[in-house]
Amino acid sequence: MVKKKIETVCGFSCIDCDHHEKDCPGCEKVTGRPFWTAFVNIDQCPVYECCTTLKKLPHCGKCPELVCERFFRFKNPEMTDEQAAAALATAEKKLRARG
């Protein structure tokens, strides 16, 4: 069975995350408070907070500031800089297509 992609406000898909389901049910279900926020001592993902709380947008593809500094604030420590840049480029492409 093919899992349906779970799109987030930031353009990343939860099913592509190794922590999806075992540590986190997905950003939408936890309203931008995924498991990793506890490790960086914040209450909510800054991208999610900006998009949904501050700007009241359905996703970042609607934001004229895409891609902003919030996307660079926290990087998955398991990824190289090159992997992180590639993942961000993919997310940006998805978001612009959803625009």
* Estimated helix fraction: 25-40%
Number of domains: 1
Poorly predicted tracts of residues: none
Biggest beta sheet attributes: none
Compute the gyration radius: what is it?
13 Å
Mean pLDDT: 89
Strand content: under 5%
The number of helical elements comes to 3
Can you count the beta strands? 0
Query: Which structural class do the helices and strands define?
Result: mainly alpha
Shape estimate: globular
What is the N-to-C succession of helices and strands? HHH
- How far the N terminus sits from the C terminus, by CA atoms, comes to 29 Å
In a few lines, what is going on in this structure?
Helix content is 31%, strand content 0%. The chain has 3 helices and no strands.
Describe the structure.
This protein is mostly helical. It has one domain. Helix content is 31%, strand content 0%. The chain is built from three helices and no strands. The model has no long low-confidence stretch (mean pLDDT 89).
Which key terms come to mind for this protein?
single chain, 99 residues, mainly alpha, 31% helix, globular
Topology:
Blueprint lengths: L45 H9 L15 H4 L7 H18 L1
